Amino acid sequence: MSHALTLRVYYEDTDLAGIVYYANYLRFIERARTEWLRDLGIDQSTLKAESGHVFAVRRIEADYLRPARFDDLLQIDSHLHAMTAARVIMDQTVRRGDQTLFTARVTIVCLDAAGRPARLPAAFSQAIGTV
């Protein structure tokens, strides 16, 4: 299962050198994962209000390959790599045209209202089609 999000680099995303500040790539891929869930019909606010479940990044492995700059149009591709009963592993890529700028493998876990690990909600698994 894959998803693509297009976004533009704004001045506020860049550092003194005029390139995207490294931590902002994490913001970009987070935004892409949120939009992926939204497109699957999963409203994270409703999920939290109704069951107390939230998602948290447990691990991230990232490679910064080329810089993005002010006004670049970027595409963030998100691909489901693997899923277990309690975690999702996503591969995400930030590209400018045909150039890959950044790649990451992100492990996301589900937490209950008390902050303890929990199984992924059935709605999540159903939305992905792996029930």
From TrEMBL:
Keywords: Hydrolase. The keyword RNA-binding does not apply. The keyword Cytoplasm does not apply. InterPro entries: 4-hydroxybenzoyl-CoA_TE (IPR050563), HotDog_dom_sf (IPR029069), Tol-Pal_acyl-CoA_thioesterase (IPR014166), YbgC/YbaW (IPR006684). One of its GO terms (molecular function) is fatty acyl-CoA hydrolase activity. NCBIfam families: thio_ybgC, YbgC/FadM family acyl-CoA thioesterase. Belongs to the 4-hydroxybenzoyl-CoA thioesterase family. This is Acyl-CoA thioester hydrolase. It comes from Paracoccus homiensis.
